[in-house]
User: What shape does this take?
Amino acid sequence: MSRLSDIALIAQVVATGSHRAFGQLVEAHQGAVRRFLLRLTAGDEMLADDLAQETFIHAWQGLKSFRAASNFETWLLRIAYRAFLDEKRKDREAQPLPEEGSSDWASPSLVTPPRGGAGGGLLRHDLDLALSALSEVERTCVVLQCVEGQSIKDIAAITGMNENTVKSHLLRGKKNMAAYLRRNGYG
Amino acid sequence: MEKRTIDNDELLLKEFFAAHSETIADNGFTERVLAALPQEQEGAVRLRQWNLVLNGTGILAVVGMLVAFGTFGWVRTAMVGLARRMLMGIANFDWDALLVQSMLFLHRLPELLPSAQQMLALELVLISLTVLAAERLARLYK
Assistant: This one.
């Protein structure tokens, strides 16, 4: 969907509260938002869909504050990323502290290998395994650039990091992922 | 050497992501989101409706004015004259006269309030008078 159509639909939603217009926006951008969250949650479809739903509800409530300075999809991905971070924080708070030296210290449950409900076959599983070789910020930056096609400027806007930090995370993340892929028979 | 490694990594990742790209089908997701949207409060709905009515009236007024511009030459002349007058220097405008007229109008307002039709008629008379005054101004500065 073009940026102009997005703005026309947003104007309609803000002016009339039209559910139909908002539905068109959801339909056009659900793919990017759900795919992004699916990668961040290491393939947990149920959690990714819950977070995506939360993202669109926040977008509905805050649509008046959208200033069209950024792309609508970038704005949505920023909300999605915040929803993911909030969920991760809640998840961490809900879990009892692991014993010192246990492997749980290094692997927060939200981003480690796929939990129940992950589907979509081996290709998706491979992708999530390769991405799990990266740290959370590296994975976020790599997914935003390589899967969602976002620019460095937009990745900085989504994650709240500055552009140089994004560049260094991307460089390190890609290097680590390429090394992982070579070790596992790609390339 | 390092540049070549980075390029190789880029190429490898590009191929990997291309082979693993996926399109996510809606599968009822949009409907679930729409069903979960919070209901607006009655006050907010009324405010939005008023906003629409007022905006619609404004748009109709502008369209009406444009039609009048096209239909009645004297309206156009008057408006062009007024615009010219404003462009020549808003500081020269007779603000005192405007203020006196406004105060007179406000002073008489309570006695005119009982009927909405009377208010409408008065508004029409005032608009006509304004247009006539603008026409006079346009003639003066032609």
User: Anything to note?
Assistant: The first helix of chain A runs from residue 3 to 16. Chain A touches chain B through 38 residues (CB under 8 Å). Confidence is low (pLDDT under 50) at residues 101-111, 113-119 of chain A.
